[in-house]
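Tokens for chain A. Residues wanted.
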């Protein structure tokens, strides 16, 4: 359930290239994507909030963050993203969604008002759109103030939706 190295590098590059500092990860799993993002944020002076519902995966992620020496750049939360994400204040300039695919659109709707202009909402596993992923992609592509592309460096598919205006 971990992202491949090419996807981690893509996230790292997006964060560093754009100087993002306030990141949110929806779906920590065991922390591999969080390590890539925190590593990038350590270069930009930023911090990552990451959320995982499964206590075992959350514990593994905490261990991985510690082993990587990146814990100071990560606020790892255990809980239900369906409840935590709407309650977060933001603002965020980078978001990575890799939780339940049927909720991608809902996460985007919850986060968009908290996403800075120029900020980027990325979503994983969009190469083969089905169900909730297709609904999400159709939605973000329909918005006049958001520009969405698919990163071709990822076999799994990472969409990158940049907020162009309020």
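Reply:
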């Amino acid at each position: 359930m971990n992202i491949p190295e090419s996807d981690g590098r893509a996230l790292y590059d997006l964060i560093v290239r754009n100087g993002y500092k306030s990141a949110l990860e929806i779906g920590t799993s065991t922390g591999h994507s969080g390590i890539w993002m925190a590593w990038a944020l350590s270069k930009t002076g930023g911090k990552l909030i990451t959320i995982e519902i499964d206590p075992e995966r959350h514990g593994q992620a905490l261990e991985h963050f510690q082993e990587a020496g990146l814990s100071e750049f990560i606020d790892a939360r255990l809980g239900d993203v369906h409840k935590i994400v709407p309650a977060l204040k933001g603002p965020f300039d980078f978001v990575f969604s890799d939780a339940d695919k049927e909720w991608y659109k809902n996460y985007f709707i919850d986060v968009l008002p908290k996403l800075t202009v120029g900020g980027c909402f990325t979503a994983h596993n969009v190469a083969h759109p089905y169900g909730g992923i297709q609904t999400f992609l159709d939605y973000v592509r329909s918005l006049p103030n958001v520009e969405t592309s698919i990163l071709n460096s990822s076999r799994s598919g990472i969409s990158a939706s940049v907020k162009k205006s309020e």
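The domain at 5-163 is CATH 3.40.50.150 (Rossmann fold). The first helix runs from residue 5 to 18.
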